[in-house]
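Continued from yesterday's entry.
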Amino acid sequence: MATWTSDRFGPVAVLTFTRKPGNFMDFGSMIQLGALLEDLGRQADQVKVVVLTGGLDDRFIDHAELSDLARAGAGLATAEELGSWSRALRLLEEIPQPTVAAVDGLASGGGNEIALACTLRAASPRSRFQQPEAAAGIIPGGGGSVRLPRLIGPGRAAEAILTGRLVHAEEALRVGWVNTVLTDADFVADALRWVGAVARNPGPALYAAKHSVVAGSRLPFGDAITTERRLFGELTADNEALSSGS
C-alpha cells in the first residue's frame, strides 16, 4: 500500500507521508520514497524544488518501524529493505533539486534523520525534533550522529543525542537545526510560499548551488573550492547574458 502521495504546485513537488497510526517509517515506505526521488531527479527541467511533509496531524515522520529493525537484526530483511534508508537519504542530498523538510509536529529518530538529509528545513511552532535512540540502547543509524553535528556543532548535537530530549521549534531555529519557523495557520501553504523564494530562481543555478554546498560539507576545503569554481565556470559559459557582457 502506498504511503507517499506526490503533488505538483508549479515547479514544486510535494511528497506527503501518511502511515497510521503514528507515521512510523517502515522499509516499504523508504523504498517508495527512494523511487519517487529518483523519478523526480529525472524531471529537473520541470521540478525545481522537492518538499517532504507529513500527512497526519502533529506528525512529520516518527522513528523507524521497530518491527522492521527487529527483522533486520534477525537477518530476515531483504537486501533492498536493508539498503532503502541509505538510498533514500543519499537521494535527498544528491538529486539535482533542493529538498525541503516541511515539519509540522514531531520529527523523531529516523524522521529527524530524513529532515537532516534535506537541503533546508522549515518548521511550524509546534514542531519537535529528537534523536531518542540512546534510551533504547542504540545510536542513530540514519546519519543523525553525523549530519546533526555538522549542522549545529558537535557540542550541541552530542547533548541532544546523548539525552534524547525533545528540541522545540524555537530552540531549533536558534541553534540552526531549522531554517525558519512558519506561523501561518495553513502550514503547507505557508511552506509553499516560503520555498517560492527558491523555486523562482533558474534551475541550473539552484542545482549547481546545492551540489556545491553538499560537496563543501564533505570534501576537504581545497577540493570543495575546486568544485565550486568548476560549477561557476560551467554556469558562466552557459549564461548568454554574462558571456555577452549585457
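--- second protein ---
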Amino acid sequence: MKKIIFATGNNGKIKEIKEIMKELKIPVLSMKEAGIHADIVEDGNTFEENAIIKAKGVAALIGDRGESIVLADDSGLEIDYLNKEPGVYSARYMGEETSYRIKNQNLIDRLEGVPDEKRTARFVCVIAAVLPDGEIVTTRGEIEGKIGYEERGINGFGYDPIFYLPDMSKSTAELMPEEKNLISHRGNALKDMKEELQKRHM
C-alpha cells in the first residue's frame, strides 16, 4: 500500500504534517509508527543538504520500498542580527537536550538592547522527498518575522514563543494550529511538496 514515511520523531511536527497532507489520502507515518529506528548524522551545510541526507538515510533502511515515499525536513530559525544563527544548528543550539525555554531566553538575552527594526528573523523549512523510483524532490518554505522580547503563547513548539509576526500582533505560539498551518514555513514547504506529489499522481 502506498504510504508516506516522514523522518521525524517530533510529535508536534508529525501532527502538523498529517493535517496538511491529509488531502492526498495517503497514510502518513512517523518513523516510530513505521517501525524504523535510525540516528542519522545531519552534517550538511544547508537546510537542503540536511533534508536530503535524512530522507535518503531513512529510505535506505526500508527493505521492500514498494510505493513508500520518504519525506524529511530540515528547518530552523535565522536571526539576521546574529549572522543568521542558529540556522542549520537550530535543533542542536546549546545542545539537543537543552530545553527550548532556555534556548529562547538565551536568544532574547543576546538581543538585549537591539531595536525592533534590527530584530528581523525568519523560519526556514526545506522538505526532501525520496520517491519509490529514487527521484529526489525538494521544496522550501519561509516565513518572515521578528524576535520578540519575551516568550508568548502556549501553542506550537521550539522557537515559536519568541517568533513574533508584526502583521498579526502575535507570536507563532499564539496562533491556533489551523492558522499556523496556513502561513508557516513548514506549511508552505509541505503545500508545495503536496503539489509536487500530486503532479506525479501520488
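The chain has a mean pLDDT of 91. The first helix runs from residue 11 to 21. Will compare against the first tomorrow.
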